[in-house]
């Protein structure tokens, strides 16, 4: 993870920052915060930041969203009608809907508990002053008038007024859209939802809870959601298509059944309901939610917090992943490898120790320096300049024990020295080995002048020492990058570090393009030219925060689906704009807030698991959608045939429930949760319809021919005619299931065989024959039904083969 003096430009606080409660004691700036009594008074008055940060819906919302749906309303009305006319076995479809709804609620509650537990681990914990001491609290414990400390990378969780500021800069882009940081001084307002990019300070809370500016936005942003998903949008389109098809077919069927069964109103109602029930794809939305919820639970066990559910699907569709080097490819912790003295008269060790001691929130680079060089005695800090991504250096004015005062800068050599300087050659030689290099330099000008005119730094500093820092490659990085390469996902390293150093790290990981790193300071600004450069190259150094955002946008403009990983505040803008933002658990609170996926244990190797879960969801829901849409198509077409032929509808609700459960409902449940490593593809709706329409048409044709033939064989024996038609429909639907279940594994074969055996049991067991009103009579009609189903199955095999060839060509 990158921090204040990190030359890559990152800026999240660790160690003595957000990582734990700092040493307590009386504060010296006079802002001691509220007393315990004052806090209790405000809590009692309800003046507390009580907006819960939820990553999931409440249990009440889960129950309502699963129970009160349009599909359940339709099925519920039909169920009530059947219960009025009876018998009870024709109302079995109501029990199936109830069971599916309960399963959906139970699984989503499991997912909610997982998400909520992980969200607690990953939530922001601001530092608040109480009773003259610093304490670390959850955001929900803040009350009105609390004094809250701010440091680089901190997310501002409530609205307030700045009380103290030391070069404090706040990024409000997530609220206002303005990318430039805003300098804050005492008396200025700060808004919840913004974050600190430089400096430090304190502010007093003036609006908390639902009164805070961004509270509603933050709550909605972290909510358990299935929206804005290509998969979900595709299912919505399918449901619209189904609705348009059901209405005319349903009305025509109702009229026909009342006409042909005018002497038996209850039978007409049962046949009418039997025609309407299968038109509704009742389990499709349920199984989509179920697949996502199970994915959340599985990823939660790997310490992966999915803050927006479509991210599971989205990462599976990514074709380009932009990686921030420090904290992603390399570990956050570092070690000082060497210090090369450039001015022998300068006590570099003491200066470095004093700079480290002057920073209350050391980053990983400075933490390595602190561990190597303890604070010297007698050195005092009189002024500081915090690190900023634009400057890429920080500094302090120090008073030595002798009383001599001097100003020191520490940062990236190539931004502090003019091009061609001899020291840069030495720095590049270290960078070529993958080492990070910081320049310690003495300034001839005071800090405030350099802050006002950063361009004057190269002419105002004298190099004193090069600090060489060794970075540790994450053990899991090589395997993870190989996985992405094998899956056709291109990796681009976008870092604020020196381009040569970034290239060396990339080379050690065998990344393509590592031998040609690009210095982002010389990238073109024109969008088209920038897009060309980003597409043609893979390793970029010296990339600023706005440039990261522009580069992500450039890739998106060329049709790429982009994921961005990062942990520092300089990654926030790019994470926000990327199709999928992946943050590290140890990253800055601002980074975790905007990322859709947070790796709580900072394990980069978890990303393949997310991709795998996304592929499982996409592939399995496509399988399930094929089955449900096949049923809808054949039901609509059967209704049309029945209306034209002016005959009774061949099925009662119990027959449709039996066939649907054995060929769709039960198998779909297992298929939706099965392993699936197929690569995600676009045009979900088109592929589903390419199978479902011909499969449904063939099922309707086979069933209609078998039914009409049976009517010519039997002398007004509707039960025998229904049995022949049911046999034809089941066999055709089972064949479709057998196709969708491919490629076969032992359990898939067992699943299909179990469904076939279950139907055979119904046909031979007398009680079940009576219960389901199914009994095959004679030989001609049953074997004709088998022949019709066989022909339909063979034609479907031909259609499937063509689909597979077309898919392979795509």
UniProtKB/TrEMBL annotation:
Membrane topology: Multi-pass membrane protein
SUPFAM superfamilies: Calcium ATPase, transduction domain A (SSF81653), Calcium ATPase, transmembrane domain M (SSF81665), HAD-like (SSF56784)
Region (Disordered) location: 1-31
Domain (P-type ATPase A): residue spans on this chain: 127-220
TM ranges: 67-85, 91-109, 241-260, 280-299, 624-649, 655-676, 688-710, 722-740, 747-768, 780-800
Compartments (UniProt record): Cell membrane
Principal cellular location given in the protein's record: membrane
Keyword annotations: Membrane, Translocase, Transmembrane, Transmembrane helix
InterPro entries: ATPase_P-typ_cyto_dom_N, ATPase_P-typ_P_site, ATPase_P-typ_TM_dom_sf, ATPase_P-typ_transduc_dom_A_sf, ATPase_P-type_domA, HAD-like_sf, HAD_sf, P_typ_ATPase
NCBIfam families: ATPase_P-type (TIGR01494)
Protein name listed in UniProt: HAD-IC family P-type ATPase
Protein's organism: Streptomyces iakyrus
């Amino acid at each position: 993870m990158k921090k204040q003096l990190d030359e890559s430009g990152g800026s999240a606080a660790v160690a003595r920052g957000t990582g734990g409660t700092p040493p307590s004691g009386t504060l010296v700036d006079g802002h001691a915060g509220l007393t315990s009594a004052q806090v209790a008074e405000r809590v009692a008055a309800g003046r507390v930041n009580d907006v819960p940060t939820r990553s999931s819906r409440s249990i009440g919302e889960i129950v309502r969203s699963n129970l009160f749906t349009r599909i359940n309303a339709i099925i519920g009305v039909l169920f009530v009608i059947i219960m009025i006319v009876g018998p009870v076995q024709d109302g079995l479809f109501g029990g199936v809907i109830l069971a599916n709804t309960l399963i959906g609620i139970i699984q989503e509650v499991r997912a909610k508990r997982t998400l909520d537990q992980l969200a607690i681990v990953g939530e922001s914990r601001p530092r608040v002053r109480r009773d003259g001491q610093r304490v670390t609290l959850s955001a929900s414990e803040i009350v009105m008038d609390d004094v809250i400390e701010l440091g680089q990378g901190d997310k501002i969780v409530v609205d307030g007024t700045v009380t103290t500021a030391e070069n404090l800069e706040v990024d409000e882009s997530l609220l206002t859209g303005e990318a430039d940081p805003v300098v804050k001084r005492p008396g200025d307002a700060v808004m919840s939802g913004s974050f600190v990019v430089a400096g430090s300070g304190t502010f007093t809370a003036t609006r908390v809870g639902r009164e805070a500016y961004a509270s509603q936005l933050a709550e909605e942003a972290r909510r358990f959601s299935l929206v804005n998903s290509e998969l979900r949008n595709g299912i919505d389109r399918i449901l619209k298509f189904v609705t348009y098809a059901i209405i005319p077919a349903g009305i025509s069927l109702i009229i026909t059944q009342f006409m042909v069964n005018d002497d038996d109103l209850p039978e007409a109602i049962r046949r009418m309901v039997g025609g309407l029930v299968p038109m509704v794809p009742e389990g499709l939305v349920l199984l989509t939610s179920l697949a996502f919820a199970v994915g959340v639970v599985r990823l939660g066990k790997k310490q992966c917090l999915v803050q927006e559910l479509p991210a599971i699907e989205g990462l599976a569709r990514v074709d380009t992943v932009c990686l921030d080097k420090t904290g992603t490819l390399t570990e956050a912790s570092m070690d000082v490898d060497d210090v090369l003295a450039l001015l022998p008269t300068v006590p570099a060790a003491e200066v470095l120790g004093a700079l480290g001691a002057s920073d209350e929130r050391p980053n990983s680079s400075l933490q390595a320096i602190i561990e190597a060089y303890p604070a010297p005695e007698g050195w005092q800090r009189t002024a500081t300049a915090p690190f900023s991504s634009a400057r890429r250096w920080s500094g302090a004015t120090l008073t030595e024990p002798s009383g001599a005062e001097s100003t020191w800068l520490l940062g990236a050599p190539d931004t502090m020295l003019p091009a061609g300087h001899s020291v840069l050659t030495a720095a590049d030689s270290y960078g070529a080995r993958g080492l990070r290099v910081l320049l310690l330099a003495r300034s001839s000008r005071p800090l405030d002048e350099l802050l006002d005119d950063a361009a004057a730094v190269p002419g105002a500093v004298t190099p004193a020492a090069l600090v060489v820092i060794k970075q540790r490659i994450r053990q899991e990085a090589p395997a993870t990058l190989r996985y992405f390469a094998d899956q056709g996902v291109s990796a681009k390293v976008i870092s604020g570090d020196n381009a040569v150093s970034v290239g060396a790290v990339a080379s050690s990981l065998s990344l393509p393009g590592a031998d040609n790193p690009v210095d982002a300071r010389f990238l073109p600004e024109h969008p088209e030219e920038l897009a060309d450069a980003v597409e043609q190259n893979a390793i970029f150094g010296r990339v600023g925060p706005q440039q990261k955002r522009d580069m992500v946008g450039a890739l998106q403009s060329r049709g790429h689906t982009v994921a961005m990983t990062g942990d520092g505040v300089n990654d926030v803008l790019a994470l926000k704009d990327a199709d999928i933002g992946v943050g590290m658990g140890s990253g800055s609170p601002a980074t975790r807030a905007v990322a859709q996926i947070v790796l709580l244990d900072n394990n980069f190797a978890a990303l393949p698991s997310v991709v795998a879960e996304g592929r499982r969801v996409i592939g399995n829901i496509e399988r399930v959608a094929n089955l449900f849409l096949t049923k809808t198509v054949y039901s609509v077409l059967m209704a049309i045939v029945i209306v034209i032929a002016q005959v009774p509808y061949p099925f009662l609700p119990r027959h449709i429930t039996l066939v649907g459960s054995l060929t769709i409902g039960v198998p779909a449940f297992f298929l939706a949760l099965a392993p699936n490593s197929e690569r995600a593809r676009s045009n979900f709706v088109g592929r589903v319809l390419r199978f479902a329409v011909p499969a449904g048409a063939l099922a309707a044709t086979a069933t209609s021919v078998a039914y009409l033939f049976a009517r010519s064989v039997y002398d007004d024996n509707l039960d025998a005619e229904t049995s022949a038609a049911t046999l034809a429909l089941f066999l055709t639907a089972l064949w479709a299931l057998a196709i969708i279940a491919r490629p076969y594994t032992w359990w898939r074969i067992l699943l299909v065989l179990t469904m076939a055996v279950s139907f055979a049991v119904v046909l031979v067991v007398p009680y079940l024959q009576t219960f389901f009103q199914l009994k095959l009579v004679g030989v001609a009609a049953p074997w004709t039904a088998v022949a019709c189903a066989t022909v339909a199955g063979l034609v479907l095999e031909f259609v499937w083969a063509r689909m597979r060839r077309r898919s392979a060509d795509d």
